[in-house]
Design a protein that fits this description.
By secondary structure, the chain is mainly α. The protein has one domain. Helix content is 57%, strand content 4%. A two-stranded parallel ribbon has the order 1-2. The radius of gyration is 22 Å and the shape is globular. The C terminus is likely disordered. One of its GO terms (cellular component) is endoplasmic reticulum membrane. Its cofactor is Fe cation.
């Protein structure tokens, strides 16, 4: 984050915000700057990417599903906006340690070995964080923890891209912790770290985007929106972030119901077809959802 801090200091904070007598390397000033930058960056990234995903990728027919809540999108956004500033507080503490030089982040690349190490570090970052997120996420489902921390995120049974960051603050920070731990354990280029941080947030949005299409060749390996939507629906399956590896190792893998023609989109389609074939049907009747719960359908 020192790159970001240096740029914002040079173009904004030093000439327009802070008094000239306040040193740029003062820890209190850096803390304030990082809080501003991290919150602003997080909100811009969230609203820009989630909005694009919601309007151009998310299948809006999912909003007809009986487990899609009233005013759900606005509630997802409100929950996110309220949580993000609190998530940023411990996150900034870690950013500050990075800025002060306690991490293994570096900014020089030697040819050719430096480029080879850069590629290896990206791969190891993804697999390392995927492993830790699996176990953190699974731990958050423990009965002693779930109702206090992780339950708010499972309010959204049929999530939209705006649900991607709608976490309890402690939940959101714990699931982001592996990304911040990595550069304290392993060398990582500073620009690559920033790029991966952006990638992680976009991926988090993508697994909540309601687009269940995955190339068949990748279905056994990649944890996509179909897998994660089933996690929201069925609770005890598909805890992974990028891959299905740790779910298979941990015995929590479930083949997505959408791949079997039993997912939420199939349910909505079947209900619509039934309504078209029975236009005179009035009143209510009980239907059993794909997750085994009964609900009333008009």
């Amino acid at each position: 984050m020192d790159y970001v801090l240096n740029i914002t200091d040079y173009y904004f904070f030093t000439p327009y915000v802070y008094p000239s007598t306040w040193p740029e390397d003062d820890i209190f000033r850096q803390t304030i700057s990082l809080l501003i930058v991290s919150n602003l960056g997080a909100f811009v990234l969230y609203f820009f990417c989630a909005t694009l995903s919601y309007y151009f990728i998310f299948d809006h027919s999912l909003m007809k599903h009986p487990q899609f809540l009233k005013n759900q999108v606005s509630r997802e956004i409100k929950f996110t906006v309220q949580s993000m500033p609190y998530i940023s507080i411990p996150t900034v503490a870690l950013f500050l340690l990075e800025v002060k030089g306690y991490s293994k982040l570096y900014d020089d690349i030697e040819f050719p070995h430096g480029w080879l190490h850069l590629i290896v570090s990206v791969i190891s970052f993804i697999f390392f964080t995927d492993m830790l997120i699996y176990w953190i996420h699974r731990g958050l489902h423990h009965k002693l923890v779930y109702k206090h921390i992780h339950k708010p995120h499972h309010m959204w049974k049929i999530p939209t891209p705006f649900a991607s960051h709608a976490f309890h603050p402690l939940d959101g920070f714990l699931q982001s912790l592996p990304y911040h731990i990595y550069p304290f354990l392993f060398p990582l280029h500073k620009l690559v770290y920033l790029g991966l941080y952006i990638f992680v947030n976009i991926w988090t949005i993508s697994i909540h985007d309601g687009d269940f299409r995955v190339p068949r060749i990748f279905r056994p390996f990649i944890n996509g929106s179909a897998h994660h939507t089933d996690h929201h629906l069925f609770f005890d399956y598909n805890y992974g972030q990028y891959f299905t590896l740790w779910d298979r190792i941990g015995g929590s893998f479930k083949n997505p119901s959408s791949f079997e023609g039993k997912g939420p989109l199939s349910y909505v389609k079947n209900v619509s077809e039934q309504k078209c074939s029975n236009p005179s049907e009035n009143g209510y009747r009980n239907d059993k959802l794909s997750n085994g719960e009964l609900t009333k359908k008009e």
